[in-house]
């Protein structure tokens, strides 16, 4: 079997085209604004933020990057977030992770207003997602994976989904979303014993552990759907968790790296930002357009 490639770049572009069309219909001077808080000089974070900014501009979302020195204190950072929470012109707020070690990530993230938490990382939005509540924001990476999965048109009910990784921003929400879609879900991590024996049971395998090319064809059930979230950088290239050339001969669908989950993450973040804008009480555009918003992945 040769797998069909799940083209995240094309799917993300299609989603961005829809966003652009919807934003172009808003009243003049009425634009969603995303604030990105970037602390320190982590090279990968700067690249991610630049990509988000470029893509935001292309769909008509204002993206304000607030660059802060590595040594910023917790209180100073919290007061910047507080200001953004109260600024009616800012509709979405994200804090680029990872933060420098002296900052408590959960405390900082929890300070973002749930209404502007377009990364869906606050405990409040995480809780809504866990309850399968339609109102919250779902974190962009798992949402992007789910959207790619939907393009296969495979019925997810009852499928055994194995997720590698249990971080709060990828693994756990991914597992929850799949559970919400009636999959039977197994979550694995660095202490899981005999991981290949577990992954071989997967109808759907989502890997988010950051171990380059760890997953080979021996880890895969014939015909499995394989979604690779992992990103490892080396010498200007990026590499996923899956040995793509090997696994593509055994999977039914597979995401490439780059060009798979990554672009979908950004597109879903921008989609959440438009949603936050449309829900904001201050904007006159909101009331009218709210009725046209879609929640296709929010069951
Ligand atoms: P974390 O480092 O927070 O979590 C990694 C998870 O993988 C942990 O749960 C860890 O287990 C588990 N893990 C590590 N090594 C192994 C192993 N050998 N076998 C099984 N499990 C293992 O990373 P993130 O969740 O933030 O990100 C995961 C990957 O996804 C990274 O490569 C990251 O760059 C990428 N990423 C990609 C995005 C995209 O848009 N494509 C967006 C966000 C992240 P334990 O908990 O026991 O330590």
Structural account:
With 299 residues, the protein is of the alpha/beta class. Among the domains are: 29-113, Leucine Dehydrogenase, chain A, domain 1 (Rossmann fold); 140-261, NAD(P)-binding Rossmann-like Domain (Rossmann fold), CATH 3.40.50. It is 39% helix and 15% strand. A six-stranded parallel sheet has the order 1-11-8-7-5-6. Strands 3-2-4 form a three-stranded parallel sheet, sandwiched between helices. The chain has a two-stranded antiparallel sheet with strand order 9-10. Strand 5 (160-164), helix 7 and strand 6 form a beta-alpha-beta unit. The longest helix is centred in the C-terminal third of the chain and has 19 residues, at 261-279. The radius of gyration is 19 Å and the shape is globular. 43% of the residues are buried. Bound molecules: NADPH dihydro-nicotinamide-adenine-dinucleotide phosphate. NADPH dihydro-nicotinamide-adenine-dinucleotide phosphate (NDP) binds next to helix 10.
Protein topology:
Layout: E1 4-5, H1 8-24, E2 33-39, H2 43-59, E3 62-68, H3 74-86, E4 92-95, H4 105-110, H5 123-130, H6 140-151, E5 160-164, H7 171-180, E6 184-188, H8 195-199, E7 204-207, E8 225-228, E9 232-234, E10 237-239, H9 244-247, E11 253-254, H10 261-279, H11 284-290
Parallel strand pairs: 1-11, 2-3, 2-4, 5-6, 5-7, 7-8, 8-11
Antiparallel strand pairs: 9-10
Helix pairs in contact: 1-10, 6-7, 6-10, 10-11
NADPH dihydro-nicotinamide-adenine-dinucleotide phosphate binds near residues 170, 189, 191, 208 and 210.
